[in-house]
C-alpha cells in the first residue's frame, strides 16, 4: 500500500502562523474550528474537521501546512514575500472551506440518521448526489489552493517539500486505515464487531449463514473493489497536482469519475446495512448500535 502523508487541515489550510512556535492566535483559531465543527457523528469518532469533508481527504497534500508548519519546513528557507503570499491564500480559502465543510457534515449526519431509521439506498439518492456534488466542488477549491501554493515555490523548494512530506510530524494521524481512501459518507462497518460479539448478540445458526451468504460474500468484495478503483484515481490526481502540470479543469473528468465511484460505494454500504437489519432482530441491531465506539 502506498503511504501518502497528508497533514491535518488545522495545520494546513488554517495555519495562522509563519513563525516556528505556536501562538495564542493559533490556539484561538483551533478553538474556533472545534466550536464550528460541533459534536462528532456517532460513526465518526476520529473526525478531523474540515479535512474529512473533502472528496479526496487523504491523498492530496495540504501544501500550506507542509511549507509553513511541517517540522522540516524551515529547510525551504521561504522568503518574506513567499510567506505573505501563502498567508493571503490561506486567509482567502479558510472561511470558504469551513462553511462548506460544515454544510456537508450536516447533510451527512442527516443521511446517517435516515439510514439508521430504515431508509433504503434508493430513498437517499438525492441526498447522496448532493453530498457528492458539494465534496467535488470543495475538492476543486483545494486543487486551486494547491496549484497557487506550488506556483510560489521554486523547483528546489518543491523537491525538498516532496522529500519530507512523507515524514510524519508530531500531529500526524497515528491510525492506519485498511484502505487509504475515505468513503463519501462516514458509515459504520459492523461485520467485524458482529463476529467478535456473536455470543453477546445471541446469533443463531440461521443468522450466521445469512451473514456469510448475504453480507460477507457480497458487500466486502463490491465495496473494497470500488475503493481500490477510487485509490487509483486519487493517486493519479495526486501525481498530476504535485507535478504542477495539471489544473482543476485538466482533472475535471478524473474528479467526476472519483465522485461517481464514491456514490456507488455509499449506495452499496447503505444496502449492506439494510440487509443487516433484515438479518438481526431489532433488539440485536440496537445492541450493535450501542457498540458504536467499536464500529
Describe the 3D structure:
This protein is mainly alpha-helical and 295 residues long. It is 61% helix and 0% strand. It is built from eleven helices and no strands. The protein has helices at residues 24-37, 63-68, 80-116, 125-152, 155-165, 191-196, 198-201, 205-216, 219-243, 252-279, 282-289. The two termini are 23 Å apart. Mean pLDDT is 82; it is low at 1-25 and 169-177.
Let me know the number of strands.
0
Strand content: under 5%
Number of helices: 11
Low-confidence stretches: 1-25, 169-177
Classify the secondary structure makeup into a structural class: mainly alpha
The major pleated sheet works out as: none
Protein traits:
disordered N terminus; elongated; single chain; mainly alpha; 295 residues; 0% strand
Structure in a nutshell:
With 295 residues, the chain is an all-alpha fold.
Secondary structure: elements and pairs:
Layout: H1 24-37, H2 63-68, H3 80-116, H4 125-152, H5 155-165, H6 191-196, H7 198-201, H8 205-216, H9 219-243, H10 252-279, H11 282-289
Helix pairs in contact: 3-4, 4-10, 8-10, 9-10
Amino acid at each position: 500500500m502506498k503511504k501518502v502523508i497528508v497533514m491535518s487541515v488545522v495545520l494546513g489550510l488554517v495555519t495562522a502562523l509563519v513563525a516556528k512556535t505556536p501562538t495564542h492566535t493559533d490556539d484561538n483559531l483551533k478553538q474556533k474550528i472545534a466550536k464550528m465543527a460541533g459534536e462528532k457523528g456517532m460513526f465518526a469518532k476520529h473526525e478531523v474537521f474540515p479535512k474529512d469533508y473533502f472528496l479526496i481527504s487523504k491523498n492530496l497534500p495540504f501544501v500550506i501546512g507542509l511549507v509553513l508548519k511541517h517540522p522540516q519546513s524551515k529547510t525551504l528557507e521561504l522568503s518574506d514575500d513567499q510567506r505573505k503570499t501563502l498567508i493571503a491564500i490561506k486567509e482567502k480559502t479558510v472561511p470558504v472551506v469551513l462553511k462548506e465543510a460544515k454544510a456537508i457534515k450536516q447533510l451527512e449526519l442527516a443521511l446517517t440518521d435516515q439510514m439508521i431509521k430504515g431508509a433504503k439506498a434508493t430513498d437517499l439518492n438525492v441526498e447522496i448526489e448532493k453530498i457528492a456534488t458539494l465534496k467535488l466542488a470543495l475538492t476543486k477549491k483545494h486543487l486551486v489552493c494547491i496549484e497557487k501554493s506550488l506556483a510560489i515555490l521554486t523547483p528546489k523548494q518543491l523537491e525538498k517539500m516532496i522529500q519530507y512530506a512523507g515524514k510524519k510530524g508530531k500531529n500526524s494521524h497515528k491510525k492506519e486505515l485498511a484502505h487509504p481512501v475515505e468513503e463519501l459518507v462516514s458509515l459504520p462497518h459492523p461485520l467485524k464487531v458482529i463476529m467478535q460479539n456473536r455470543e453477546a448478540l445471541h446469533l443463531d445458526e440461521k443468522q450466521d449463514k445469512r451473514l456469510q451468504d448475504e453480507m460477507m460474500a457480497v458487500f466486502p468484495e463490491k465495496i473494497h473493489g470500488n475503493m481500490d478503483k477510487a485509490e487509483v484515481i486519487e493517486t493519479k490526481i495526486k501525481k498530476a497536482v504535485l507535478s504542477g502540470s495539471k489544473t482543476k479543469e485538466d482533472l475535471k473528468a478524473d474528479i467526476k469519475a472519483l465522485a461517481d465511484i464514491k456514490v456507488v460505494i455509499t449506495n452499496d454500504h447503505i444496502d449492506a446495512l439494510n440487509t443487516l437489519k433484515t438479518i438481526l432482530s431489532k433488539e440485536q441491531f440496537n445492541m450493535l448500535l450501542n457498540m458504536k465506539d467499536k464500529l
